[in-house]
Every structure is written in structure tokens, then in C-alpha cells.
Amino acid sequence: MVPRKLWRRPLDSEQIKLPKAEIHIIPDLCKGCDFCIEFCPRKALEESDKLNKRGVYPPKVADESKCTLCGFCTAICPDFAIFTTEKKEETSRNGR
Amino acid sequence: MTEKEAEEAPRIGVYVCHCGLNIAGTVNCEAVARFAATLPNVAISKDDRYTCSDQGQELIKNDIKEHNLNRVVVASCSPRLHESTFRKACEDAGLNKYLFEMANIREQCSWVHIHDKEAATEKAKDLVRAAVAKVALLEPAIETEVPITRNALVIGGGVAGIQSALDLADTGYKVYLVEKEPSIGGRMAQIDKTFPTMDCSICILAPKMSDVGHHPNIVLLANSEVQEVKGYIGNFKAKVLKKPRYVTDECSACNDCTEVCPVTVPNEFDIGLATRRAIYTPFAQAVPSTYIIDRGICLNKEGIMACDKCIQACERKAIDFDMEPEPLELEVGTIIVATGAEVYDPSSLTNYGYTRYQNVITSLEFERLINAGGPSGGNLIRPSDRKIPESVAFIQCVGSRSERGNPYCSNVCCMNTIKDSLLIKEHWPDVEIHVFYVDIRAFGKGFEDLYTRAKEEGVIFTRGLPAEIVEDRKTHNLWLIGENTLQKELYKINVGMTILSIGIQPCHDSDTIQRLCTLSRTLDGFFMEAHPKLRPVDAPTGGIFLAGCAESPKDIKDSVTQASAAAARAGILMAQGKVSVEAITPKTIPENCQLCGLCARVCPYNAIAVDKERKLVEVAEAACAGCGTCGAECQFEALHMRHFTDAQIMSQIDALVEEAPDEKIIAFCCNWCAYAGADFAGVSRMQYPPNVRIIRTMCSGRVSPKFVEHALSRGVGAVLVAGCHPGDCHYINANIQTRKRVEKLWKKMDRLGVDKNRLQLLWASAAEGEKVASKAKEMQATLKKLTPEEVEKGKQAFAGS
Fold this sequence. Notes:
The complex is a heterodimer. By secondary structure, chain A is an alpha+beta fold. Chain A has helices spanning 35-39, 72-76; strands at residues 21-25, 45-47, 59-61, 82-86.
């Protein structure tokens, strides 16, 4: 079956619990290669406008809710300047 | 006896059929028979009440023997109906079947000129004269036999495709079942219960699906698409692309992967009422049960592996992101097209507010809602507040039987609504149910009982569809406003939820299937059968059969019936193991051939090869379909189009214009569309002027410019060339040549000062009888303005052609 335009919000959208992410960036370790920004599959990162100690613009979080905790940024960062952790339940609000 | 027929002088028997009063009511058949007796080479001429009856056929057989006839003409109905009957009778009497010709004096004469008996009789005489002229030139032919590969291809894995595949596989043939979705099951898998027996749809379908998955004779190719079909009856070569699932057969469908997959989207199977992950199975009973990764939404794009959660979760190591698309080449003898249909999208009917109002849903969404395995666990909840509504309304004929949607009746919606209303009453008897309808069509076995039951259960049926739905902004209840046409009063009814009973329409990719399998479609867009009554599951192309909603909207029972019929028809061919090809292919005349290669260039089947070194043009007879466009293209008379030779067609033209040529229209009609359309005009009794004289060719591409020029040189009033719509050609694209040739002729007529309105081109499908009739009327009007000087100019301009 070919999907017609699916326009409804799925009925189970509130029950689907995806782990919420917290993105941690250590700005001063960053050398500004931008790999994490470029390769983040969800485009959750963007360049910040503040120079770090090494004289480059490190990444900053654009939209944390987009992060799926895939960990790709951690894996490709040459300088160990970024990692993600799962957000604990009490602060997370699921849905949407 | 076959050999000597050709050498002897023609001894023709003419039989004019009364067809009861179908012909004799308009045409004076005795007069036509007497007239035929005066024609050259006619040995005997008779009229008969029903020539197609056993007695009628016996008469012909006896005469062939007794009077030593070597040619037979029957003037009766369309050759599309009974040519094979009479050919068989000739054969039984020892006469080669290619020495038979028909004059169509019913569909193209008596039925379309009911009120003009005199003109109809004169036309019948003309048609008989043309048939006699042609039959005298016919040559005996022996058909070549082509072997049939004992494998079948079934395209589409809905219930129709499943049934066809199982029937063929159980008979013992190997079947390739190609389904473009990740699972077979089709629409039936989405439906909750079936009418009129209220069986659980997936419960009766799932065992069949699983049979397909396990059958030793079935190769199931899900998530695959047919990309190319080449060849001909018995010897098709199909290219199928098996797209990667990125999950191997090691998958045990344990669901561990989906739990960790971080990407969610609305699930197509539940029409977006539930979510799925990037790695998923469309529904629990899916076959094959192997999961699939939707690379469109997966985080891992080409060359970049960002996420390995599913790989980590899969204990059986079944996930393989390196899987490549697998092109397959299948050799099959028969093809069953069971590509199904789509549902109508009601969002364009803005007065019903679908997509604007949460609580307006479609009947397909309803099926998922009421299904125990569906997104609401079988609870009838309305989307706005997820509560069970106190009242619901069904609106019938949404997108059907209307100029705003599709003009036809979608067949299943009435009964589907009645079934749905009973399902609601079964679980929530207090819910008030309104059904707004145009007509309730409960025609099938057990349907009326179900309708009566719904009325007894308190479902309120109101004739007259709502003109508009208005939402109450606070409660999200819906006001339905319209006219009750039985009571002649207006209604304004408030309900909690409205279900639009949406119609069925052809798949959006029907074009592709049509092109691949050289099929035809009706005006509604569904695939056309070879004959609506007597060959309802055969496609016009040999070796291809139709099943299910691809042919027309139908319910499960009818789909299954048709699927079994298609399997049986395909089985007959494969059981015989061979089929004879009509002897209408070209023969080359090497001494005339200049090796120009034009014939090879226009052949839609690449059946002609020019060998410059050996100075030969070769026709691959089995690949040739006999359209004759090569014969029309050849400038040197080096191709002899068997059974439709230049001389035969010229003789027909001469016979038709023997009397009062300037009052006549010669119409060349292709067998599959225009001629069938003219037959359809006859069956529908559409009346048009009686001066049209139709000459049948297999394809409009056979119409050589010299035929048209010859007709004009004989002073004919006007010429019509009619064929299938561009893109619908029965011979792939041979009618493109038709257009080119007609355009060239127009230029030539312009140059020679001949009124080019006297040559017309018409595209008409087999369903467009009206188009043929109105074209005849239109041309009649131009004919009236024709001056003798103009006729003379045409004669002079093309003299000698």
C-alpha cells in the first residue's frame, strides 16, 4: 500500500518512550573540525558564536530533543570533546 | 485439401445472418443475400436465422463439401465475437481457416442505423461486397507453434495474487509472486471483518499468506518491483528488482531491534494511527516475517554508519547494512496482473473537512480503529478526545458516483458500511448510527439479509448525502447538514464522529504496469479485459490475465473468484505447453527489398533484423505481434503482410467506393481500440450516419499512406484513420507511426490543394463508442459541404495511387 499523506498524530505517540538525551560538550577541547555538526544524523548541533581557548568556534546544542543517543558524535570526535548521556526520567517529558 | 485451395479459382460461399431480429429487424437480409449472389466468384449465397448456431455452422460445413467452396464469408456480428467460431467451422470442413472473412453488419450496421432500413441494407451490401473482394485474395496459412514455459509470474500479493499463486502452485507450476510492499496481504490484511459473514479478515487471510511463504512451488519476492517485461505469450522475460531489506532470513521476528531503534514515523499499515520504527515489520502476521529497515528514515545513510543500536540488539546477527539490490531475470510463460487498487483521498472534498476536522475519518481508518490488533486496541474512539462517541454517521459514495470524484460505483462501500455499523452495534449497542446514502446496493449473496439486520438493530438510514459538515469548535462534534430526499425535508444532525465511506480507484502506478505488460485501460483507469462477457479474466495481450481490483472494484469473494479463474486460464496454456501464433506476420520479398531498414526502425518489438552483409531482412516470427506497421512503412513493397496484404486492403477500398464514393467515409479502425469502440457504439445502440464504411486492420499503424491516397483517388468523400490513444497502443507504440503518417499526408494534401479536412485522425479506446459515433456525425457534416470540384481535385491529385 502506498501511504497517502499521513496527517494524523499517531494515537500511541505518547506511549512511545524514547530515551531522552543530554549532550555534553567540552568547548576547550574542541579544535573546530565540525565533524560532529556535519555528521550528526539528526542535525542536533550547530556552531556556537563564542571562541574557545584554542581560538575556534566549538559546537553548541541546537535542539537536544532531536538527539537519539546514537553516539556517533562521540565516536568521530578526534579530541574527546563531546559525549551524550541519557536523561533521567523525572526531567523528561515524553511525546510530541 | 489446404494446398489446392489457393491454386483453384475462388468459389465463395456467402452467409447472411439474421441474428433473429438483431440484424433482420433493420437490414433486408434476403436482399443482401440475393445481391451477394451477383458478386464475382460467389458460388452460393444464403441467408440464415442464426449462423452461429450448430445448424448454421452445419450448413456452412455441408456447403463447403457439397459445393466445393474454397472461401467463406459470413455477414453477421463483429469478428471480435465470432470470427473464431466460424474459422473453426471452416477448419472442421477441411478448409483452411485463413480463407474465411466476416462482414460486420450488426454492431456496425443494423444496431447503429436502426431507423434507416434502406441505408442500412445498402451499407450491408457494401460491407458484403468488400468482404467478398477480400476473401477472394486471402491465402491459406499455417500457424507456427510456440512453446510455453511452465512458470508463472503473479504481480501483486493481495488476496487475488495470493489466491492465483496458490492455485497455480497447487496445480504444479512454479510461481514467482512479486509484491512491492515488504509483506503480502494487501488491503484485506488491513480490514477488520468481512461482509456478509463477519469473518475476521486477517484470521482467514493469514493462513493463506503463510501457505504462500512455505509453498515449495512459490518463490515469494516481496519488497520487489517488476521493471521490464519482454517477450510474448509463453515466453516472457521479466526483470524484477529485489530491493534490500537490510535484514537477512536469519531474522526470527523477536522485535528486540525495534525496541532500541530511536527513529519513529507514522505506520502506513495503520494509516498513520500508530507509529513504527525505522526497523519494523508492517503488521504482526506479515509474510515474509523478516523485518525490514526503512533507509529513508534510518540514521544510517549511504556510507555513514551513525547508529548501530539494532545491530547490537540482534542476537542472531541478522542485520546487514551492506545488502545490495538484487536484479533478477525470470523466464515465465504466463503473467497474472493482480496489482489491486487504492482508496480515494477525500481531502479534496473540502465540504466534508477531512484533514481539517479530527473526527472525520475514512472507512479504512475505521477498519484499523475497530480492529482488536489496531492502534486503539479495538476501541471505537474518536481522535479528538479518544472517547467513544455517542453517535456516529457514515457518509456513502465519497469519491464514487460523482463528477467530483470518480464517476463509477466502487462496489464494496455500501456493504462495508452496513458491516461496520453492525460491528459498532455489537460492541456498543447504545451508539446512535446514521447512514447517509444515495442508493444502498446490497446485491450479493447474503447482502440483503445483512442490510435488514442493520435496520433491525436500529441503524438509521437516510437517503441524501450531507451537503456540508461543520465542526463545533468546543466539543469537536460535527453538524451534518443536508436534505432527506425521501421526506423532502432538510436535516441538521449532530454526531460525535463521521466516517467517510471512500471509494476505490486505480493504483497511481497503473501506467507503469500498463506499459510493462502492454495492457489497455477503460476510461475509469482499470485494466481492460479481452472481452467483457466471455473472456473476463484474459488481458488483450496473450498469456496475460487479470485478477482482483486491478480489473475493477470488487469485494474479497469476487477477487478470489477471479483470481482462481485467472489461475485456471493461465494453467490451461501451461498444461498445453504450446500455443499457435496467428499467421498475420509479414513475409519478406527479397527481390523488392532495398535494405533501407525502415521496417526494422518502426517495429515496436524489435522483431526485424537487417543483415546488410547477407543482404537479408529477417522477421523473428515468434516475437512479431502482427501490427503491420512495418508493411505500412515499406516504400518498396518488400513486405507481404499476411492476411492484411496491400492488395487485400486495396480491394476492400475499391469494393466500398464502387457506388457513390463521394458520399462515403472510409474508416480504417484498429482491431483493439477503434474497431472495438465502434462495436461498443453498436452494442450501446448509438446512432450515427450510415455512410461510414469501416475497414479493420490489426493496428492503425498498418494504414499505409497509399491506402488513403488510393481512396482519395477513387473520389471517396472522406477518410478516417482511428486507433488507440497514444500510450495505449496494443502494439506498444506503433500508433506513433500512424500519427506521423497522417501528419505527412495532411502536409501533402495541403501542398496539392486538397482539403485536408477530408482526412481525419481519431484516438478512441474500446470503451469510447460515443467518440466514434460523434466523429462520424462530425465528418458527415463536413461531407455535406464537399463540392464535386473538390472531389475531382482529390482524384486528380492522387491519380495513379
